[in-house]
TrEMBL record:
The keyword DNA-binding does not apply. Keywords: Isopeptide bond, Metal-binding, Phosphoprotein, Transferase, Ubl conjugation, Ubl conjugation pathway, Zinc, Zinc-finger. E3 ubiquitin-protein ligase which is a component of the N-end rule pathway. Recognizes and binds to proteins bearing specific N-terminal residues that are destabilizing according to the N-end rule, leading to their ubiquitination and subsequent degradation. The gene is LOC107583822. GO terms for cellular component: cytoplasm. The keyword Metal-binding applies. Pathway: Protein modification; protein ubiquitination. The lineage of its organism: Eukaryota, Metazoa, Chordata, Craniata, Vertebrata. Its EC number is 2.3.2.27. It comes from Sinocyclocheilus grahami (Dianchi golden-line fish). GO terms for molecular function: ubiquitin protein ligase activity; zinc ion binding. This is Putative E3 ubiquitin-protein ligase UBR7. A zinc finger (UBR-type) spans 44-116. CDD domains: PHD_UBR7, UBR-box_UBR7.
Length: 379
């Protein structure tokens, strides 16, 4: 996945280690991210019949379409059913894409889930991402030759991924800044620079030649935009304000910034001509897609046997007494494991495989003692 990772090493040890508590926390975070991304896509059916899907999780198969050939993308279900064991590149999500699996780009291979496909999907857009390359440096991720720890950030326009250090600006540490547009895409849609001076992140802008704090102007701009939204074009008003910013580096946008874009008839034509009509759609955002995935996963888990949680499905096949016994045992083990690990965390110790083996041996021993005691009283 295109996320940054961290590892802590103990002094005096050659092998890097992490505490199990750290591992569990990171595993839970990654599981939540995976649920958000994959939960919004169907893992059983090829997405091809749906046409150019608004947003979906995509993969590229380096085994079937290696570098030097034509780029191709496959949906989540095809990555499982048609390309199991292949060398896949995870592309996260992309918009308006139709699954290529089994079309002419794959030679004699046919899709196992939906074989009746057109030869090519002319509406798809491809980039070097489909060959496992990213950023302006055109490198893979993770990069075995890159010793600099750095996160990857996706541009919402071209949907390429960039190293933070290659964005031409300081990456802000602010949860409000949810979307980024790279410098190249900003220059291809120059009218966005006018918006960037008003509704982008906390940057220093120029107002009639005088520097001022962006946050103050952000509040003023919101008020003036709302007042003038019915009177005329917001973009024209922003250009006339005399406020500008340096036209370089990537731009990070504040939450809900899309709602402040002008949607007058002239601006709609502007978006269409520039190929960025999706900016007017709040549901186009990755955040909206992830929230949909989380909702889907939560609904499935709450659905019991109808969901995909194997534990809940197994419980529903048991009688009430067996269900209560298993739930009781599970809660006891979870509490005991948590208490067991807390001691290691409090003392700053690393949990070894022997420690984990010892814990479960203790669990088995207690279980045997309880079973023997039950047999004695029942005989």
């Amino acid at each position: 996945a295109l996320v940054s990772s961290r590892m802590a090493a103990n002094d005096g040890e050659e092998e890097a280690t992490v505490s199990l508590v750290d591992v569990l926390e990171e595993d839970e975070e990654l599981e939540n991210e995976a649920s958000a991304v994959l939960g919004g896509s169907d893992s059983e059916k090829c997405s091809y019949p749906e046409g150019y899907v608004k947003r979906q999780a995509l993969y590229a198969c380096n085994t079937c379409t290696p570098k030097g050939g034509e780029p191709a993308g496959i949906c989540l279900a095809c990555s499982y059913k048609c390309h199991e064991g292949h060398d896949l590149f995870e592309l996260y999500t992309k918009r308006n894409f139709r699954c290529d699996c089994g079309n002419d780009k794959f030679g004699e291979m046919e899709c196992k889930l939906f074989a009746d496909k057109e030869k090519v999907n002319s509406g798809n857009k491809y980039s070097h991402n489909f060959f496992g390359l990213y950023c302006t440096c055109d490198r893979p991720y993770p990069d075995p030759e890159d010793e600099v720890p750095d996160e990857m950030i996706q541009c919402i326009v071209c949907e390429d991924w960039f190293h933070g250090r290659h964005l031409g600006c300081v990456v802000p540490d602010c949860v409000e800044l949810q979307e980024m547009i790279c410098e190249s895409c900003m220059n291809k849609t120059p009218f966005l620079w006018s918006y960037a001076a008003h509704i982008a992140g906390n940057v220093v802008v120029q107002v009639n030649g005088t520097s001022a704090c962006k946050r103050k102007h952000q509040e003023e701009a919101e008020g003036s935009s709302e007042e003038g939204s019915c009177a005329g074009c917001r973009l024209r008003e922003m250009k006339a304000s005399g406020r500008s910013r340096t036209l370089q580096g990537a731009v990070f946008w504040l939450s809900a910034w899309r709602t402040k874009l002008c949607t007058c008839s002239n601006c709609k034509v502007l978006y269409t001509d520039a190929g960025v009509s999706f900016l007017m759609d709040e549901m186009d955002t990755v955040l909206a897609y992830e929230n949909k995935g989380k909702s889907t996963m939560q609904a499935e888990q709450a659905g019991g046997a109808e969901g995909r949680d194997p534990l809940m499905s197994a419980l529903n096949n048991l009688n009430r007494v067996q269900q209560l016994e298993i739930i009781h045992e599970y809660n006891d083990m979870k509490t005991e494991l948590k208490d067991y690990l807390q001691r290691f965390a409090a003392e700053g110790k690393v949990v070894t495989p022997e420690d984990i083996r010892h814990f479960f041996e203790q669990q088995q021993s207690r279980k045997r003692r309880r079973a023997n005691a039950g047999q004695y009283y029942c005989s």
